[in-house]
From TrEMBL:
Region: Disordered, residue numbers: 1-26
Protein name: Uncharacterized protein
Length: 82
């Protein structure tokens, strides 16, 4: 019987502790944009970000580091309600 392939963890379960130690869902997901062809680009999810409670700034957690064709830029998109 062939070996079962493991599935990678998704960031849907990524949480950040609030000041009471409870987890919060991300406010943003962090991506690297990779150009595959002149007219084709893909986004690679690298982590998540949370708004600070006081409204100033973000906390960012990267699950992976961008290394392939990295131009120094990351993009953040709001997390959608699921």
């Amino acid at each position: 019987m062939p070996a079962k392939k493991s599935t990678p963890k998704t960031t849907d379960k990524t949480t950040a502790p609030d000041k009471n130690g409870n987890g919060r869902q991300p406010d943003y997901y962090i991506y690297q944009s990779e150009e595959l062809a002149p007219d084709k680009t893909r986004l690679i999810q690298l982590g998540a970000a949370w708004n600070h409670v006081n409204g100033n700034g973000l906390s960012i957690k990267l699950d992976a580091l961008p290394i392939r064709k990295f131009d120094g830029q990351l993009v953040a998109f709001p997390a959608r309600e699921r």
